[in-house]
TrEMBL record:
Listed Gene3D superfamilies: 3.40.630.30
Superkingdom to which the source organism belongs: Bacteria
Protein name according to UniProt: N-acetyltransferase domain-containing protein
Length: 281
């Protein structure tokens, strides 16, 4: 058994026995948490923990549906604004049930919003080692193959990273293809044409088709300065397209993107936590 779904009246979760390493040892994960009834959730979580210990694991992460490519993290603080597109969401009592079972935060994240009229007032100097271009809108499969290849390298050193097959990644993003706007997808390319970075942004369709908010979902780069230039280009293009607000989404507290968002004046409106539990370690 690698993945098992547990259900009772009022609660459900999945157990994943192929989770990432945590401090040098394999961890199980608990994902797809839905505790409509708190008492049922508490009892089901305890049942899951027994299953995980019996399987030989001494540590577990949650919520995480197996890896960080899929849904993970609880909302820990919020200003009460509606969830944006592809944002994790949970009932307020669900992280409390995990905490009562002994789970503690092992990683923290935030989302921040900014008025686009205040972003990047001055143009950046032209880079020498790369150029920034938007996606041409053709061959979306090729687009995501390039993004996947770069992501596997760029994120490999991140905490709790686990590789996945390209086919799984493409299956996750195919449903998003009709929602894409090519003007909000950027590549940084070296002079020889090889990919040095990418940025993926998407309108916040959770607000409707006429949304005035764009989500800067993720970006990565290998060349110093490429990330900053792609973010600047994204802000400028979104402004020109009539968007009014940008969301810097799901940023880990201690990485470079977090520093950049803070320096640019991003206002945090949501915080998230990934929780973990160790036994006899």
């Amino acid at each position: 058994m690698k993945v098992e779904t547990l259900k009772v009246d009022g609660a459900a979760l999945t157990i994943h026995l192929n989770g990432p390493d945590w401090d040098g040892a394999p961890a199980a994960t608990i994902g797809n948490v839905s505790f409509k009834v708190p008492k049922a959730g508490r009892e089901l979580l305890q049942k899951a923990l027994v299953r995980i210990r019996d399987a030989g694991f001494d540590r577990v992460l949650g919520p995480m549906a197996g890896d960080t490519w899929h849904s993970y993290r609880f909302v820990s603080e919020s200003d009460g604004s509606p969830a944006f597109l592809m944002e994790p969401a949970n009932r307020a009592h669900e992280p409390l049930i995990f905490a009562a079972a002994g789970f503690e935060p092992v990683a923290r994240y935030f989302s921040a919003r900014m008025a686009l009229e205040k972003c990047d007032p001055a143009p950046l100097p032209a880079p020498a080692d790369f150029t920034v271009e938007t996606w041409d809108g053709n061959e979306p499969e090729v687009l995501f193959q390039e993004v996947f290849a770069l992501s596997c390298v760029a994120f490999a050193d991140n905490a709790f990273y686990t590789p996945i097959p390209e086919s799984v990644f493409l299956g996750m993003y195919r449903p998003v293809i009709p929602l894409l706007k090519r003007e909000l997808i950027f590549f940084a390319r070296r002079p020889d044409g090889t990919l040095a970075g990418f940025l993926f942004a998407i309108p916040n369709y959770a607000e409707g088709l006429e949304t005035k908010t764009v989500i800067l979902k993720t970006y990565a780069s290998f060349v110093p300065g490429a990330g900053r230039h792609m973010v600047h280009a994204c802000h400028a293009k979104a402004r020109a397209m009539g968007y009014e607000t940008v969301i810097h989404a799901l940023i880990q507290d201690n990485n470079r993107s977090a520093d950049r968002s803070r320096k640019e004046g991003g206002e945090v409106f949501r915080r998230y936590e990934l929780l973990g539990l160790k036994w006899d370690v």
